[in-house]
Amino acid sequence: MRQYNFGECIPESVKIYNRLKEQGKSPKLVEGWVEVSDWPGNVEPCREFLELYYPDMIKKLDKDILFDDYIRVLPHTWVICDGKIIDKTRNQFDIYGGILVYYEKMKYRPRGKAKADDIKNWFDEREK
Questions:
Q1: Contact 75, 9 (CB under 8 A)
Q2: How far apart are the C-alpha atoms of 32 and 95, rounded to whole Å?
Q3: What pLDDT digit, counting tens, does each position of 43-66 carry?
């Protein structure tokens, strides 16, 4: 099985999305975060994630700069279809003990055939 690296999730997810669309299914591309069991070095808190999922932790971080009991996540992109997560590149997180939880930030369903560059641009524009 191929070992995937960080950054390959978007193009691989686009391939899966397009394949499912061609089969007449209704997939969605999902951008979000994953929580892993072994943390790579000193992962800084992702404020956007904490504001969305754990706003009480933001308050603790703001009060105590040494607060270290926050959920650490890494950015990731995957596909959902028929209520199931389809994540061909999940093994990129095996070096961190694997994925514990997927957290959605946004879903995207392109009108036509998806392209990796279009998806990156769409996600980047949503950030502004």
A1: no
A2: 19
A3: 788 999 999 999 999 889 889 878
Domain ranges (residues) in the chain: 9-40+72-127
At 84, the amino acid letter reads K
Q: What is the pTM of this model?
A: 0.84
101 vs 74: CA distance, rounded Å:
11
Question: 72: which strand partners?
Answer: none
126 or 98, greater pLDDT: 98
Q: What is the pLDDT of residue 119?
A: 67
Provide the 8-state DSSP code for 102.
Answer: E
Q: Are the C-beta atoms of 114 and 121 separated by less than 8 Å?
A: no
Beta strand 99-108 with 28-36 is antiparallel
